[in-house]
Amino acid sequence: MSTPLNAREVADRYFLEHRAKVLDLAAFLDRYDRAAQAGGQPASDRSDDVRMRAMLAAIRLLADGKPERARRILELWSDQSTDPIERAPMKGAIGAVPLQDR
Amino acid sequence: MYIDPHIHMVSRTTDDYRRMALAGCVAITEPAFWAGYDRSSAQGFVDYFRLLTDTEPRRAAQFGIRHHTWLCINPKESEDIGLAREVLAEIPSFLDQPNVLGIGEIGLNKNSRNELTVLHEHIALAAKHQLMILVHTPHLEDKLKGTRLIMDAIREHGIDPGRVLIDHVEEHTVGEVLRRGFWAGMTLYPDTKCTPQRAVDIFEMHGTDRLWINSAADWGVSDPLAVPKCQQEMRGRGHLEDAIRKVSFENPFRFLSQSGRFSTGR
């Protein structure tokens, strides 16, 4: 079942929605930087938050021109280990794993 | 007309039943899940199972919706193996209730050893009573690993994957789930899991066989009308009504009818 839309129709239907999402993302990064600066961190230093590092890595992947970006970003953010952990440390999930541990 | 094969109506209002009926919902299935807090005893689960097998079917029937359920102790409360085994011991006494389809939503949450032990014991219970299984896969960064551990565990018990639905698949898990012969469910959530747009993308990339959509609406940020909104997304792209009906009615009907207890009442 392929998409019935051609590329122009996809852009016509979804561009404005995703233009807004790109702006939301930009504003989120600006907001984070302002808060970090107010806390005494340099604007470019996001090294203390694994989620922010994971997000920036995903943004780089978005622009690599290769297919299946959604799948590859989800894999980038996934725990790639294979053995069960000893004990659940919490109930929730944060959405990303520390990239330096890969 | 549609079926929402995964929704937690104990957390929703009667107005939601009415709106779902107006949108064309004819049947639902409600897996047992985490209530947002840890229950203090097995008796709390017994009360919950009475709600799922008695109260909710009557509430749904007021709006012409057939209500079905799946029973278990969910993985978020499975770290306490003692409590989990007490709850597991209570489940057989509910299995003869006419709206019980099987065991679910079982699975993993943080992929811990205790969660995996309790998962195996649920699978063994399903195998003993020849019941179908509805699987919850973990959230976010834990999903890929957990989905693989769950499928391996089910295979160890010799369960037919055609009688198991692996839920909450996304782009990084759907292919492997389908390749291994399981059914797959896409949950339509505003922030996590799949949006209606991504779900339709997945249909376009992976086809419509053994794949369904559900709202999994519960006490969190969620939408009990997510399934008809996904139908609308398919229409908006120009997909044919036959394809829309297949993913939102025929596929869940076909899978759930294997239980011998599922009915849309029509």
Question: How would you characterize the overall build of this protein?
Answer:
The complex is a heterodimer of chains A (102) and B (266). Chain A is an all-alpha fold and 102 residues long. Chain A contains three helices and no strands. Chain A folds into two domains: 1-44, no CATH class; 46-80, no CATH class. The radius of gyration of chain A is 17 Å and the shape is flat. Chain B is α/β, with parallel strands linked by helices. Chain B has one domain (2-259): Metal-dependent hydrolases (TIM Barrel), CATH 3.20.20.140. Chain B has nine helices and eight strands. Chain B has helices at 14-22, 42-61, 81-90, 113-129, 143-156, 174-179, 196-206, 226-237, 241-256, and strands spanning 2-4, 25-31, 66-71, 100-107, 132-136, 164-166, 183-187, 211-214. Chain B has an eight-stranded parallel β-sheet with strand order 1-2-3-4-5-6-7-8. In chain B, β4 (100-107), α4 and β5 form a beta-alpha-beta unit. The longest helix of chain B is centred in the N-terminal third of the chain and has 20 residues, at 42-61.
Largest sheet of chain A: none
Radius of gyration of chain B: 17 Å
**Annotated CATH architecture of chain B:** Alpha-Beta Barrel
What sequence of helices (H) and strands (E) makes up the elements of chain B?
EHEHEHEHEHEHEHEHH
Number of helices of chain A: 3
CATH class of chain B: Alpha Beta
- In total, how many domains does the architecture of chain B comprise? 1
Strand order of the largest sheet of chain B: 1-2-3-4-5-6-7-8
Computed CA radius of gyration of chain A, to the nearest angstrom: 17 Å
User: Total number of β-strand segments of chain A?
Assistant: 0
- Determine the number of helices of chain B (DSSP H or I, runs of at least 4 residues): 9
In CATH, the topology of chain B is named TIM Barrel
Average pLDDT for all residues of chain B: 97
